Description:
Strand order of the largest sheet of chain B: 1-2-3-4-7-6-5
Radius of gyration of chain A: 19 Å
Number of domains of chain A: 2
CATH class of the largest domain in chain A: Mainly Alpha
CATH class of the largest domain in chain B: Alpha Beta
Number of strands of chain A: 0
Bound molecules: zinc ion
Largest sheet of chain A: none
CATH superfamily of the largest domain in chain B: MucB/RseB, C-terminal domain
Number of helices of chain B: 10
Number of domains of chain B: 3
Order of helices and strands of chain A: HHHHHHHHH
Strand content of chain A: under 5%
Helix content of chain B: 40-55%
Oligomer: heterodimer
Structural class of chain A: mainly alpha
Strand content of chain B: 15-25%
Distance between the termini of chain B: 81 Å
CATH architecture of the largest domain in chain A: Orthogonal Bundle
Helix content of chain A: 55-70%
CATH superfamily of the largest domain in chain A: Winged helix-like DNA-binding domain superfamily/Winged helix DNA-binding domain
CATH architecture of the largest domain in chain B: 2-Layer Sandwich
Number of strands of chain B: 7
Largest sheet of chain B: 7 strands, antiparallel
CATH topology of the largest domain in chain A: Arc Repressor Mutant, subunit A
Amino acid sequence: MDRVSLSEEEKDRFAKALLQHLDALYGFAWWLTHRREEIEDLVQETCLRALRSAHQFEPGTNLKAWLFSILKHEWFRRAGLAQREVLADSFSDNPEVPGQEWAVEVDVIRTALQKDLDEALRALPEEYRSAVLLFDLYGFSLKETAEILAIPDGTVKSRLARGRQMLRGRLWAYSKVSDNDQM
Amino acid sequence: MIRCETVLHSLDALRDGTLGKPEEEEVRDHLTACGACAREWEVTEALRAAIRNRVSAPAAPAAFREAMAHLLARQASPVGWFARLQEAFRRQPVAAMAFAAAMVLLVLVPLNVWMLSPREIVLPLVEESINEHIRLSLLEAAPEIPVAELQPLPVRHRRRLEFFNPLSFPDDREYHLVGGQVSYLLHRKVLAVIYSHRPKRPITLLVIPNAGIRLPEQLLSGRGKVYWATHQGFQMAEWHEGPFIYSLVSDSDEGDLSPLIEKLQHQ
Ligand SMILES: [Zn+2]
């Protein structure tokens, strides 16, 4: 039977469970927008929506992923963004890493500064950034990432590949700049 | 023989553990045999590790967390104690009345004392001002409202905060206003502006509606009636200005703040 609403006690328990993911939600919202006002509004709306539709959550599935999908949806709604495909030439300014410098590149990545990683991630088009953050940082599965972003699994894979490619290009470019600084 | 392209496309599924058994074995075999794919795997693993270990986002601020906890608790049980009391009234009028009287004493009296005690109310402001100061000082990008727009404030901000006094002093090299933004502090809209003072000694000014916040009268000092505090190594100065409280935070000492206070108060 489909349940329309939860008892007061269940809702209370659900609210407490929500709060355990507050930092993660706040962090993800921070990646979507840097405006504190907007972050707080977004997280608040996400929690209230989640509580209102708590009866739709399937126990046993990943609550965090469910909350992230609400947040993402809310963000799209506000930003007036349609779930869209990104045009291939919107990231043509990203340098490619020359293939033969593979060992150097691994080293560049391993020693990359937090500041550079942050900057490189911020510079990614949002669709790619979200995919990389959800899968690589937050550790969601491919399926969960696809559900949060409301896109097919295959699209997640290609966004991950492309997003990481762009990150690598950025980190590589930063390392060249700091080499020049030292000279 | 499996193709490199297929392998590269399966790497995330391999990480995810969602490849079928025979497929997984095939991909793993390929990775040990093919240098190009193995290198791709290793670079991506290094990148993922860097992201996991070195990338982070701020946690929810304590005040926000607290506000959310209250909000969610209220939403979760919208019926609340009052409705339950009404229900009890219907069943046991006398006991309920005694209970209600006891609740009035228990709840209202301490609440009143708490509201009268200035210390309880000032401290969160001091704490939050410092947090905001740290946060703004860490931002490398220029704040959101360019100085040129601060005087007068853009219309959308003016609606939220009306100012009597100018906040920037273009001729003054000592207290040079860098910029500012409208944010939230203690659940109120706040205007936060930064002055560059000496190198690495930014000063943050927060202008916050004073509704509900009263500085402790007996601790206000000087002609300007300023509340001075040192907390976590930061120097703070706070005072009432019309319907606002002005809160200054600096990494430096009192001597650096006094001239700025004078300017802000006597313009
Ligand atoms: Zn291969």
